[in-house]
Design brief:
374 residues, alpha+beta, homodimer, Alpha-Beta Plaits, Gyrase A, domain 2
Amino acid sequence: MSTSGLNMSRRIRRTPYTDRVEQHGVRGFSVVNHMLLPKAFAPSVEEDYWHMRAHVQIWDVSCQRQVEIQGPDAARLVQWMTPRDISKARIGQCLYVPLIDDKAGMVNDPVLLKLAPDHFWLSIADSDVLLWAKGLALGARLKVSVREPDVSPLSVQGPKAEDLMAKLFGEHIRGIRFFNFDYVDFQGTRQLVQRGGYSKQGGFEIYLNDSALGSALWDAVWEAGQEFNITPGCPNLIERIEGGLLSYGNEFTLENNPLECGLGKFCSPDSDLEYLGREALQAIAAQGHAREMRGVLFDGGPCPPCGKPWPVHAGDAQGPQIGRITSAAWSPRLQRNVGMSMIEKAYWNPGQTVTVCSADGLHRPGMVCALPFA
Amino acid sequence: MSTSGLNMSRRIRRTPYTDRVEQHGVRGFSVVNHMLLPKAFAPSVEEDYWHMRAHVQIWDVSCQRQVEIQGPDAARLVQWMTPRDISKARIGQCLYVPLIDDKAGMVNDPVLLKLAPDHFWLSIADSDVLLWAKGLALGARLKVSVREPDVSPLSVQGPKAEDLMAKLFGEHIRGIRFFNFDYVDFQGTRQLVQRGGYSKQGGFEIYLNDSALGSALWDAVWEAGQEFNITPGCPNLIERIEGGLLSYGNEFTLENNPLECGLGKFCSPDSDLEYLGREALQAIAAQGHAREMRGVLFDGGPCPPCGKPWPVHAGDAQGPQIGRITSAAWSPRLQRNVGMSMIEKAYWNPGQTVTVCSADGLHRPGMVCALPFA
């Protein structure tokens, strides 16, 4: 049992960094992909938010598990899983790829890393893509191996991340462009470093490929980060919502198609790509999707945590329900609450006035916004 | 944010009973199948243990999600997923079925419910069998629908469970045999009731098929249970280990085959059944599996929670490592610690003396035992 109150067991996997995270006094965990994700260190999510925007943080995001797909049919399997055209991806490039099923329902929204023409990693959100990809491959008798390698991303996020990484791994780090990766040497091992991460403040993810080096890598980043005012952190709810970063299971599930998730720009429904769910997605595209992801800015003072979705009504609380808030937080910068909701088509234009009925019983006046929030 | 310290979000799904569970003052949750599982109510797991052995408890086990497989190829798909022969299962019968992949690795260990010749539910442990089964079916172009219905099991466990259920649903409940199911009327709806559950104290699971009735069902069970000294509870770690009930992700993972899990009696490796992983399982069976699940009884006073596996050595702590404890608890009845570990073949006979090196640094003398514990 940790200080978090979450009951610990082997089933909820520790990461190569959990020992360090505990030494730093983590105050809560979530569970993603059967693995611990630290959720709170600083006295408040707000302090954490301001720190991340100004300095640099070290995050244990090992729960972003990799699904490795390798072999003669690897590119075919990856393309089969997504409506995004992956044919022109370069080695060293990352693509954000919606994965959909035969009904165009979202299975996951991973980042695809192309390691070689026949070798990919899917860096996944919270669903067992390993079983999905294996099932498809075995069912269709594809020549491909699908497995979860011993890779545990450690994220370095914030405006000072580049200086920290350059100090630690060398100046060539600065040449890695956004959503590309390269390799660095760490204690004689070759490790993949990507420029990206689950914030809008800039940063890198180190895809550590050897659990045994977890504490050593954490310590090296921590030490190099002292002059940059580094703190331990985690994906920040306020910053994530402001940045319009979706979370699988929160903003969308298997019940949702990628167009209503606002992921249309990552889909090629009308191409002749061979992917699962093409007919379903084409039908939705032809008819026009009925709702789409939007930001909602709303008042009434700091809102409570959004554990179950809150109805969004057009106009006042007597107006028709046009959406439901699935994630929300008080923005200390905007001095209003920020939330995300799919909004019905007739009401999805920015500026639409709405009322959010939060779990505390308040009727909170608000407005539909584009994502990300300004 | 609940009292549990687990950060709440829509991604970690509430159940139809979560409102009631919170009203009863739940003190902690775990996460199984992306859903909340209550983990603590009573002042201690020990009090909970004694109460369950003497009276009756109501458990929210909605996280035992159902994967519904229905259609002309349903029986073929289910058989393809398991080395257990399902051909002779009767309608109304439940079977404990190991699910394995092409390498004979354990994907899950659900209870199979046969609703009709072409209609099954898999009541699953903690992995996305929905995606696994859908992937296999789509890859192999099987004529079958695979989905997660709105079914949320509520468990009534303990020696007084039968009297409670008979009072609530009628005397015919007493005629349901272990690992069989029948239907009851609840407020004009037809609901499936199975005799079984995740304890060895006897009981039933009500597979509520309509979330909207969650609070009503909870209240009906609660009210009927007053004369039987009912309390809210949850799977009890001490009772589970004593009873030799395995937990997917704790005692075994995709890395383990069913024979080393001690599930050989549920496998027919040498049959001509058409199931995935048959060659791999036959090869393991021919060679003989190298380790097998056992109980370990050990001393040194109440052990700490087992968050990461503890080495088990033959003889004293200098002896060879022959296993690792994956779940452990102090048994107030046996006045010793009980644990589970796969044990290497040369040492797996009951009576073998061992030393358990627990996380608190103690070297605890112990002994290999058969499961369940006496």
